[in-house]
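Hey, quick one: can you model this chain's 3D structure?
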Amino acid sequence: LCTDAAALLRQAVRGPPERDRIRRAMQFIESRFEQRLSVEEVARRVAMSPSHFAHRFKDVASVSPLQYQKHLRLERARELLLAQREPAAQIAASVGYASPAHFTRDFKREFGLSPARYARAFESGSIAQLHDASAGE
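Sure thing. Here's the predicted structure for all 137 residues.
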């Protein structure tokens, strides 16, 4: 039971169904990214214990479930910012942030600029230059 061969057998037996559960969890998060979700709630949705779910999710997605949700929120916020030119506070609320300041901090951490500066850089055409410069680092 403790050999490498046994570990491979265990992984083969539990592999695809767990991947399917994680995929379903990702779809659940994607469909409700703007809502407040907990690891426990998502784990329950796919019939896994919260601890096991969190570990398996990170194995599959390379981020935690809540980091995945945050990434989805920020990507949608970026889309709204560029397409609708709404104020950052309004965008923050529409993607599920309770605090505009927290949203701005997360946005800057993800994209390198505050939402307002990002929108101005996009309008001036310098976003492509920023992305090219950060890709070279």
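One thing worth noting: The CA atoms of residues 121 and 129 lie 9 Å apart.
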